[in-house]
Each structure stands twice: as C-alpha cells, then as structure tokens.
C-alpha cells in the first residue's frame, strides 16, 4: 500500500531505529585500502565503498584494517565511507564454465557474455577432513613416457613440477591436460602473473587440441592487481572442488606458485606486515598448504570425486634448497624435477629421473605398467653412472660397453616431442618391447623412428598386453628383425 509520500512500501517493512557500523578510508594505493572503523569486521569478509567499489578484508589490526580492492573506480579516495556486507567471497561454479576464460571473480575474459551462474562456491574453504578422504588408487595418465612409467601420478595426488625457467614445466602440464580428452576428467588451468601473449598461446593450444571443451582457464595477468594474482589459485581450486564434491575427477594446474608467493609478499609488505626469510611473511607456508591440502580423493559417502593438483614452481640455477621450493616439496606428494643442463643438451622432456620422485603414485599405477617398468629406473640410473665413469677414457669391458649402448638407446626412447602425449597402451607397448629386449636391434639414432613404427603395430585398444608371450610381441619381434639390422 502507498505510504504518506505516495510511494509504495513493502508490507513487512517496520519503522524503527537501526544501527550499523561505518568506517572510512585513510589510505589508498597499489590495490590496497587502509580503513578505520568497522571494529567487528572479519577476515575474508567483503566490504563495500560508497562509490560502488568492493574490497576483501585481508588484515586486521588494533585500530585499522587492510583490504584488497576487487573492483576499483576512479572516484575512491581518502575519507570515503565503507560498510559491511556480511558476505564472504564466492565464485560461480558449474558446467557453464567449461571452455571459458575467466578472472578470479568469475568475470569473462574471452569476449563472450558472463556465464549465467546458478551455483557459487567460497574461494576459501577448509580442506576435507581425514574421515572424508580415501586412498589414492586410480592412475592419472599424463601421456609422458617418463612420468607415467617412472614417476606415476594417481588421482587425488599433489605432484610438484619444479625447475628453472624455460625448461618445459608448463608444457608437461599442458600435455597432462590434453591427455585427459575422453577420460571424463575436468581440468582447471590457473595462469598467474603471465604476459598476455603467453596466456593467449596457452588458450590457443588448448583450442587447437580440443582440450578447451573440458577445461576452465582462470587468468590473473602480470599487470593485474596483486590481489587478483593472490586470489587466482583459490578461485581455480574452488571451481574444481565443486566438481569433486559432485563425484567428478578433476585436474588443477597452478602455473605458477612462485608468482603467487611473490604477490602475497607484495601485499604483505604494502600492509607493513613483519617480513621474514627473503622478505616473505611468516605464514607463507600456511598460504600454500591450505591451498594444496584441498586436493584429495573423497570416499563414496562424501561424493567419491578427486582433485589432482599439479603446482608449478620455479627455481634459480637449479637451487632446490631455496625457501619457496623447500616449502612446496614438503607439502606435496612428490616432485618432477626439470634440469636446465638436460634441456640445453636436447634431452626432452628435461626430467632428471634421479631427483624426481612420486611418493604415493606407485600404488595407483596399473599393475601391467608397474611390472614392465620395475627395472627401467634402476637401469637408467646405473647407465648415468657408467657414462660418467666412461668419460675418463678408461678401457671398458665388452659387457660394460653393451650396457652403455642399451642406456643410450633407453635415453633416446624416453625422449618425447612436446604436446604429443601417448596413451597408456602405447606406454605398455614400448615397456614390454624394451623389457623383452626386442628394441635392442635399434641403434640410438633409429630409436625415434623405430618406436613410432612400433606404436603403429599396436592391436586394438586397452591394456591387453598382459603376457610377455602374447602373439603381439611375437609378431613385433619378427617384424623388427625383418625391418632393422641388429645394432652394433
């Protein structure tokens, strides 16, 4: 019904005195606002400014709070009024995100209309408790010969990808995403602090390989506010966590957490937090642990889904004992180490097998692949030692010379072109053929061409090569002996 001024008022409206807290801005700059007032503000609460800007409470002190600016207008200035919203930061989730490129708040960056979200998930959430978790028991295939055979990854595992800049870390992660096509695994790629050209290249690669159809790309570019770069991995985790709770298998790539840690350090120094080692705040370990602990396998009562995390971290001159790398190594379930010397010598992927390890992935590895690759890691490490010894020019026995030849052949077999992931059947094929000695007729120079022809001889599909006496192996042995002369 109309009120005394002729306007209509809601029927449940009641006149009365209302009190609300209001603060005011005392400082603004570099994506940070310093605010006085709002004594009951909570961490990670959204606050609103009178000009329509929004912020996220990031720090609480005795008489002032610090907030990250999420949406900033040109009119925001000191003295402006600020008030509570009582809400926490959430991001839209669901199937509408597949194939889209969004920022950490869910806003579209691909030129298409914003997704019509019906469901939302908080960016910050507690990791699933132990009682909800299950054992890692299913493999997640990356398509890489070295990884799937020697450093296996299971669904729900947190496997660190570490190495110097420009050694192929992101390429391996892209291979893993591309290899999930047709496997019912939903992927999230988080790009933190990268240039626009690098982001565009990644998206174009996903589009050309049809991997964008089952992938969400969360982007916080290098020129974005530090708050956006800080929130980006939590946004990607929230998107994948929603699907995990619905019983889906997901894969999240964080590229990379070095820039994420630097953004957190920047925010902390702007808010005058006490600096610690390398000027990082004292809670930098907790920052990444609370993010990565959300990746796990859920038991059936909790949904039965999984979230596999592939965080990427950068080293300088191969220094593994630096602050952030040691933190991430202690949090994750293993690491894949990329060596710049291997990369410079043309051994791609430049994975150092001796420094790489998967602590729990072996329990999820397919039994046939596990049995076929049992001795390859040891044989390869022994070859590296023999090769180092042989450089001194010592006279070697015939048996040692043969081991060196087989080691060089294995090194060539393990080489793989980027963005060409292999199926698990192809992995098992070369592992069986190598274990039976069928590939010994190849010289190291013939390895690439011969291996490709071996894959073309594969019968059918699926892991069916369980027996070393299978007809396929007999046929392959005959074909290799007819095609290649025995290697000297």
From TrEMBL:
**Catalytic activity annotated for this protein?**
ATP + H2O + 4 H(+)(in) = ADP + phosphate + 5 H(+)(out)
Query: Where is the protein localized?
Result: Cell membrane; Membrane
Where does the record place a coiled coil? none
Asked if Calcium is a keyword of the record, the answer is no
Q: What is its main location?
A: membrane
Q: Which UniProt keywords apply?
A: ATP synthesis, ATP-binding, Cell membrane, CF(1), Hydrogen ion transport, Ion transport, Membrane, Nucleotide-binding, Translocase, Transport
Top-level taxon? Bacteria
Subunit: F-type ATPases have 2 components, CF(1) - the catalytic core - and CF(0) - the membrane proton channel. CF(1) has five subunits: alpha(3), beta(3), gamma(1), delta(1), epsilon(1). CF(0) has four main subunits: a(1), b(1), b'(1) and c(9-12).
Chain's role: Produces ATP from ADP in the presence of a proton gradient across the membrane. The alpha chain is a regulatory subunit.
Supply the name of the protein.
ATP synthase subunit alpha
Species name: Methylomicrobium album BG8
What phylogenetic lineage does the species belong to?
Bacteria, Pseudomonadati, Pseudomonadota, Gammaproteobacteria, Methylococcales
Q: Corresponding gene?
A: atpA
